[in-house]
Task: structure prediction
Amino acid sequence: MKNLYSILGVANYASILDIAKAYQNKCMENPASCFYYTKIFKILAYVPYRLVYDSLLLSIDIRALAFLQTSLNEEEEYELAFTIHTL
Result:
């Protein structure tokens, strides 16, 4: 399943430094999408948001296993990231 961690190319246990480096690299590779990467970075860099996102990921994984649903597409991940960011 594609998630914010995989979009940045880091593990879900990545440190803030690894997340920051990945964020910088992604923005340099694709400046047009830097806005989205910034939203992702803000969620993963701020511990309360990251905890909420991780718990949502867990519930999404459980639902996907229970109902054999397909994973979220990239647009749905960005929408989820925006929703979490506005909490």
Remarks:
- Residues 4-85 form one domain.
- The chain has one domain: 4-85.
- The two ends are 23 Å apart (CA to CA).
